Every structure is written in structure tokens, then in C-alpha cells.
Amino acid sequence: MVLFGNGKKKRDSKSVPNLPTVDLVLTLLILGMFVGDMLLLARIGSNVLSELLTMMLCTAVCISCCKLGFPHIGRALSTSDALKMPRNLRKFSDQSWQLMVHAGMTWYEIGIFRENSGEWWTDTTTLWRPLQHESESLLTDLRRLYLAQLGVWFITAFSHKFVEAKHNDYYVMYGHHVATIGLVSLSLFNGWERVGFVVLFLHDSSDIVVDILKMTNYLGLDSNSGLFLAEACFAINLVSWPIARMWYFPMKAMRSSLPQSWGWGDYPYELEGLLSFANACRGLLVVLLI
């Protein structure tokens, strides 16, 4: 197993470019952030580091279970035409654990919103108030969410590089993993968890429809089968995706981290270097994910 240029890895598309230098840089960035996060968490406490490693182990187990179980579900639900292409079943299985992650995270995030009566959503100025205004149980749940997110994204990045077949968006998604891990880490270690929480909720919740759309398409449950499930999911996504990514993301997440002195933002202080970098990463996510 090499860090770049793995020609033996399965490819689901012949159009995947061979860019070993880009592959190496992205892989080293992931590894660097992994080591850095481990060291920072160890300084906070061994129990926090153990919690992250436990989250990573649980994620790996979840992925393995999905890859073992969902092919049987996919085979039972697929049309005969869809089964003629073996990669459809493999891609259905790959997407299944993404659906489990996004649905599970969204459920947990809604629970956190309920715990603070949705205040972080309805009034984004509260995202920057002193932490002593938040209950200890709420902050504990928020920390666990972040550790779970880091565990999922590190395992996802390693799986994307070393396990899953390469799709034609391989480098775009790899760059997305780098940007996401960078944002989650910056948010966790700089006290921006509440702003980051809103970003995570918007991305996790809007990805559920995308996951279901892809899975129904891989199963062949479209107009050719007479069920029109793929088309229905596509229509729903045409509404849900722009609302989440093109309206709520800038109006809630990005606006909350822009200075009030600019006349539009909710951030009560002047913009510092790290927060400017975080805003640049958010802008990168918008470009990659719209």
C-alpha cells in the first residue's frame, strides 16, 4: 500500500486522472492533521483521546457491517438491469454507510438543538456568547459530537484513499475531506464549536437526500422500473440542497463568523487570522459542494 499513485486500486471510471503529486500532498495533509489532533487531544486529557479512538473504531465497525449487510439488501431491491453492472452494488454499499453517518449525526444534532431550545439556530449572535452561559451537559454533548465527527472523517479519508474504488470525483472529494477535517479541527481547538455545529448540521442534514438519491439510482429504481423513486429524490434534492447550501449556509454559518463592524455579520470582535482562514475553508466547501 503506497501513499500515492496506486495503480492497482479499483477504478469505477476511466476518466480518473493520475495525479500522484496531488494525491501525495492531500494524503500528507490528512496524516499531518491526524497526528496534530492526536497530540492536542492528548494534552487535553487521555480520556478525550481515548474517546476519539473509540469513535474511529466504531466508525470502522459500522463501515464493515454496512459493506457486509447492504449488498444483500441491494441485491434484493435492485432491478435486473441494475444488477448487470456489478459496480452498482458496490457503490450502493459504499453509499449506505454514508447515509447511516449523515442520518445518525443529524439525529444527534437535532437533539442538541432541542437541548438549547434551538437558540443557536434562531439567534446566531448566541454562538459567540461566553461558554458559562451554556450548561455543562450541553457542552459535553457538543464535544462528543465533534469527536464523533473527527472519527468519522478520518476513517472516511483513509477509506477514500486506501479502500474504496476511485470515482471520477476522487480528487474533489479528497480535497473536501481535507477542508472538512481542517474546519472541524480548527473549530474544536479554538472554541468555535457552536458555529461549527451549525455548519455540521447543515451539511449532514442536506446530505441525507443526496445519499438516498444515489442509492435509488444504483438500484435502478427510476422511470425505467416504473417506480420513479430516483426522479422523486432528485426533485426533492433540487429544493433541499439550494436551501441548505446556498441560503442557510451563508445566512447562518458564514454570517455568524463575519465581524459586526462590517454591517452584516454577528461576530462581536475584529476578524483574526485563524478565523479568516476558517472562512476561506468554508468558501472552499461552497465551491466544492454546490
UniProtKB/TrEMBL annotation:
InterPro entries reported for this sequence: Lag1/Lac1-like, TLC-dom
Source taxon at top rank: Eukaryota
TLC domain boundaries: 90-289
Gene Ontology CC: endoplasmic reticulum; membrane
MF (Gene Ontology): sphingosine N-acyltransferase activity
GO BP, sorted A to Z: ceramide biosynthetic process
Transmembrane segments: 20-40, 52-70, 170-192, 227-248
Membrane topology according to the record: Multi-pass membrane protein
Keyword Transmembrane helix: yes
Location of this chain's protein in the cell: Membrane
One Pfam family linked to the record: TRAM_LAG1_CLN8
UniProt keywords, alphabetically: Membrane, Transmembrane, Transmembrane helix
Name assigned to this protein: TLC domain-containing protein
Species, as recorded: Polarella glacialis
